[in-house]
Each structure stands twice: as C-alpha cells, then as structure tokens.
Amino acid sequence: MSILIESICRYTDTVASMRDHGPAGSTHEGHEGPGGPGGRGGRGGHEGRRLSTRETAELLGVKPETVYAYVSRGQLGSRRDPGGRGSTFDAKEVEALARRNRRDSSGSSSTGGELSVRTRITLIDKDRYYYRGVDATELAARHSYEEIAEWLWTGELRPGVTFTAPEASVTAARRAVDALPEHSSPTDRLRVAAIAASAADPLRFDLSESAVLGTARTLIPTLVAALPTLRHDHRDEGPLAHRLWGRLTGRTPDEASLRVLDTALGLLVDHDLAASTLAVRVAASARAHPYAAVSAGLGVLEGPLHGAASGLAHRLLLDVLDQGTAAPVVADELRAGRRVPGLGHRLYPGEDPRARALFALLEEVPGAAPALAAAQDIVTTTARHTPLHANVDLALAVLTVSSGMSASAGETVFAVARTAGWIAHTLEEYEERPLRMRPSGHYVGARPPQPFPE
Q1: DSSP state, 337?
Q2: Are 131 and 148 in contact (CB under 8 A)?
Q3: CA dihedral 158, 159, 165, 167 (to 10 degrees)
Q4: Is residue 293 within a helix (H) or strand (E), and if so which, with residue range?
Q5: What's this model's pTM, rounded to 2 decimal places?
Q6: What letters, b where the CB count within 10 A reaches 16 and e where it falls short, cover 210-222?
Q7: What is the layout of strands, in order, in the sheet containing 79-80?
Q8: How far is the C-alpha of 193 from the C-alpha of 415, rounded, in Å?
C-alpha cells in the first residue's frame, strides 16, 4: 500500500506542478491562482507550516489515499519533501478544506433545512435519473444487473460479469435462514442471511476498497442462494436474475419474463438517499463493516412506505382482477382512508421512469395482459380526481401477479437489487470523515431542573 501511495504521490505532485506553473497570470476556474485563497500551499508568499500525509489524513478524517484524491481533483496542493520520501501539505490549506468538508456535510441546506449529503452515485432530475451521469433506464435496458452494479461501484463496465458465492458463506446463510419460522418475511430471511454470512467471513472488518468490493460480489449471490427454492429443477448458475427467479415462483421462466426481472433489478439498484440508503450511510459513517451496513438498510426497507409497497400494489391488482373493475376496489381504499398503492412518487411530478421502462417490457410477457389492463384501470379510475401516474411498485406488481409470485416477491426483488446500491454508498461514505452523520437533537422537553421522580 505504501508503494501505491508513493506512486500516487509522485503523479499528483507532477499534476499539481503543471497546474501551478501554467501561463503567467492565468487562473483556473474555482481558484484565484497561486498565492490567493485557492492557491497552492503559499507558493510565492510566506512559507507556512507543512503537514505530512499522515497528519493531513488525520486532520481531514480520511484515508491517505483520499488525500491524494483531493490533490488530483485540485482541491488540495502538495509538495515533495526534499529531505523525506513523501509529500507535504500546507496546514492552512488543509484546515480550510477540513472546514469546507464539515460545512458541506453538516446537514444544513438552503432548500428548507433538509439533510444534504454529497454523492457521486445517483442523480434524480425531473422525470429521469442517472447512475454516475448515465441514464439509468438506458443502462438497465442494455446491461445486466451485475454489470450495472459494477458500474455503480467502480465506474467501469465489465461485460458478462457474474457474481459467485463461496460455499462456506452459502452454507452458513442457509442454515440460519432454515431455522426461521415458516411465516418469516423475505426481508427477515435476507437480514439473517447477511448476518450469518458476516459471521463466516473473518475479513469482514477490512474496510479497504478492494476488500469491500470482494464482499459485495459474494454477499449478493449469498443472499439469493439463502432463500428457499420453489422449483425442483432449479440450478444456481448463470445471471443473478435467473437464480432469483426460482426463489420467487415455481413457474418455468420465459425469456421475456427473465428480461423484465433482470431489468427491474437494474432499475432498482439505487435511488439517491432513500430512507434505507440513509441508514446504510449512517452505519458506514460509524465504520460498520459492509454486512452490518447492508443489514441496517434491510431493517428500514421493510416499512410499507418503502420496499414493502409493491406487496400492497400486488394485493390491489388481485382485487381488481377478482372484481373485474377497479372502481369498487379504489373506492374501498379511499373509504378506509388509505392512499391507493402503486400511484405517484414524491420525486417524480410526472411518470416514474422505472415504471415506464418495465411496463414496456411487460407487454412482451405471455400472460401479463390481464394484470397490465388491471393496472391501467387503476390509473384511469384514480385520474378522474387525482392525476397520479403509476410508479415502480405497480409495475413490479404486474410482474409478480402475472408470474404467479407471492405478494412479498416484489419486496425480495427490491431488497436484492438495492443491496448493490447500499454497497456503493458504503464505499463512498468510507471516504468521508468518520461519524459525520451525527446530527444534533433539538430538545423540546421540560427544561431542567425538574423535581426528582418519586
């Protein structure tokens, strides 16, 4: 690792030198040139105190590798130490960067005081969303779930990549899941599987990027392999979507249905800071290992307003198919004071792009026509008073209903898919200052001193 850091050091020093010794009088966007507030360690001015790489990393609360990432991005200047082997950094510049980081991650926001966290993973913009700047629906249409996961983790596409689970990990996870009561939910099983796989991994506390990526590539197939199979001829091989299918339904899959499932996994990999993802980042901020961070996400996912929402839409579709029309079913939902599941999304004023992509593929699935018609009837009936569009939960429900899956199958798809996104956020959070996800409570209780209770 020291050799790697030294190589990065030499490269970043060269880049910094080229940047700082450009045409006379030139400045760079976002900086004020050498010697100014954005300058490089006081060159051309008074020489201030300089810090070693280790001291700089400690002050910023990051790893040494991240220090050099700051240099390569032009956020920090460095200089080779003539009498030593490493680089040195201007103390004032490091302290200024530390203050900016604290300010940027303090949770304050100019848009109403909501928590704001810097991320390079997913952007949601109007009625589209992007993974590392690339349209997510196009990625899901062209690449497998595993390929999209690799893109999210590393910024590189690995065509044909598949994930394989170690036998010891699968054995431990299956044994733990098999011990659960029969009525346990999919999320219960996945959470227990993650914990069991963690206990079987003696290297789980290694938080280096390479180790976390290795964990991710084995944890996701372990979670799938730990679920009970519903087909006697099922084989754990091939793309993850094929392996997951036999744990969602006993029906023999057709190519169109497998494509919908694989695309759904890719579309659901990440969706910015959803509630479960925020929980994952809080765990990662405390430097919990990846298994624990994923477990934190699974704990939040089970709520009816998050991962379990597709189950409500599944039951609604079955009721509409049973009644033959959506009108009485929608009326019953509204009479009970409930929102109609599968409609609307707080981040998309228009159509949910994930739903749009899945509905287009579902039209090619044999036997999906009745469920598709029922979903359209729900949207049309509700639109008479509230113009809400179908969301991804309703599209997932069409898949689960038309494929003979249980109401909880959509939750399973959601959880397996989102695990890749949680790993991406875990990796990103490990690069930040530890324990930064620690807001202060606004106490509104009785002011002390209060009489001692008797």
Answers
A1: T
A2: yes
A3: -110
A4: helix 290-301
A5: 0.76
A6: ebbbebbbbbbbb
A7: 50-52, 87-90, 79-80
A8: 12
